From TrEMBL:
Belongs to the class-I pyridoxal-phosphate-dependent aminotransferase family. This is Aminotransferase. GO terms for biological process: amino acid metabolic process. Keywords: Aminotransferase, Pyridoxal phosphate, Transferase. Its cofactor is pyridoxal 5'-phosphate. The keyword Transferase applies. The keyword Transmembrane helix does not apply.
């Protein structure tokens, strides 16, 4: 019988010690370290645009640096002028206009997600989490005292879960359902009809909905972004939206996100943030005002490039024996199934037979000098995530290396 470590001898709390590091950031860090050591690594790991932040946004930050009013503390919940700009932007892009008191400006989308869950969940409350999921969702739920309940979709449904699957996962402890469209890591986009069906199901059972709209502008082809609280106004009293400037405006390093939700939830999350971080950097908030208030010309140009890369990466991945890659409809990720290359199906590649996608990703990094993220990080072993938010030449070179390496697979 193993002994339990007494609290006085435990150096790291059980709550925080149970949290794993971000797998996507870990892969990106390793790729950058290898590059710094002189190896020609091509990284498909990080989920960030390769474009610079548009000039007009940077200029707004420069001017803010010179303004003494931004050299001091400002309201913990965000600059009033940014909140007003977010409300106007939400009306423009989503079709509904929240009140300023329903908005909290956060240090990026991750803080928005954690604070929203922390404001809603009590210990033991369950959150239905469609998988594949972004790595931060279940960790934020656990840190807030909740219990993530995974509902898995695969390539046969375009990585979209059904109402029937959600209902099968619902228990008396279910409090929240997570809805993400477009999705990280799969690029899946729900149709208006499917989104409405999920929203009405949540309403029927009195559930909260947490919806992440960070990729709202990155949709391709015939796919369309649907905002649940705009589609179903009656859902707004139990719906929390998280969003930010990171993906749309190539501002991942600026760290500005936000929560939109019922006033009592936003007030509770604001109280939490007032003790955790106080206000978001004023300079970054000034830049965010310029971003959300400006037109979408720069965004449209980035989306055109992502669309071109999307079609290229899907074509090239599907040319590899044992790889099946559905065409993503949004975001900037491809999520191919490589189940035919691992485990009992594993073939020998340069003396190794990878038993899972963690081992396959490690082999690809070592032998092809290409960094990808294994599906285990997203709750679904047997897949790889590749971000196509990198230059066209690097994308083609990186997937060509994959093609060459995996072509060597032998029984």
């Amino acid at each position: 019988m193993s002994a339990v470590t007494p609290p006085t001898e435990r150096r790291v709390s059980a709550r925080v010690g149970a949290i794993s590091e971000s797998a996507t950031l870990a892969v990106d860090a390793k790729a950058k370290a290898l590059k710094a050591a002189g190896r020609p690594v091509i990284g498909f790991g990080a989920g960030e645009p390769d474009f610079p932040t548009p000039d007009y946004i940077v200029e707004a930050a420069v001017e803010a640096c010179k303004n003494p009013k931004y050299h001091r503390y400002t309201p913990a919940g965000g600059l009033p002028e940014l909140k007003a700009a977010i409300a106007a932007k939400t009306l423009r892009d989503s079709g509904y206009e929240p009140e300023v008191s329903e908005i909290l400006v956060t240090n990026g989308g991750k803080q928005a997600i954690y604070e929203a869950f922390a404001a809603i969940l009590d210990p033991g409350d369950e959150v239905i989490v469609p998988a594949p999921y972004w790595t931060t969702y279940p960790e934020s739920i656990r840190l807030a005292g909740g219990v993530p309940v995974e509902v898995v979709a695969d390539e046969t449904t375009g990585y979209r879960v059904s109402v029937e699957q959600l209902e099968a996962a619902r228990t008396e402890k279910t409090k929240v359902v997570l809805f993400v469209s477009p999705s990280n890591p799969t690029g899946a986009v729900y149709s208006r009809e499917d989104a409405e069906a999920i929203g009405r199901w949540a309403l029927e059972h009195g559930l909260w909905v947490m919806t992440d709209e960070i990729y709202e502008h990155l949709v391709y082809g015939d796919a369309q972004f649907t905002s649940l609280p705009a589609l179903l106004p009656e859902l707004r009293d139990k719906c929390v939206v998280v969003n930010g400037v990171a993906k749309t405006y190539a501002m991942t390093g600026w760290r500005v996100g936000w929560i939109i939700g019922p006033k009592d939830v936003v007030k509770a999350a604001t109280n939490l943030q007032s003790h955790a971080t106080s206000n978001v950097s004023n300079v970054a908030q000034a830049a965010a005002i310029a971003a959300v208030s400006g037109d979408l010309t720069a965004v449209d140009k980035m989306r055109e490039a992502f669309d071109r890369r999307r079609r290229t990466i899907v074509r090239m991945l599907n040319e590899i024996d044992g790889v099946l890659c559905p065409e993503p409809e949004g975001a900037f990720y491809a999520y191919p199934s490589v189940k035919a290359l691992v485990g009992e199906n594993a073939k020998e590649i340069r003396g190794k037979r990878p038993q899972n996608t963690v081992e396959l990703a490690a082999l690809i990094l070592e032998e092809a000098e290409v960094a990808v993220v294994p599906g285990e990080a997203f709750g679904t072993p047997g897949y790889l995530r590749l971000s196509y938010a990198l230059g066209d030449e690097d994308l083609v070179e990186g997937v060509s290396r994959l093609q060459k390496l995996l072509a060597e697979a032998r029984d």
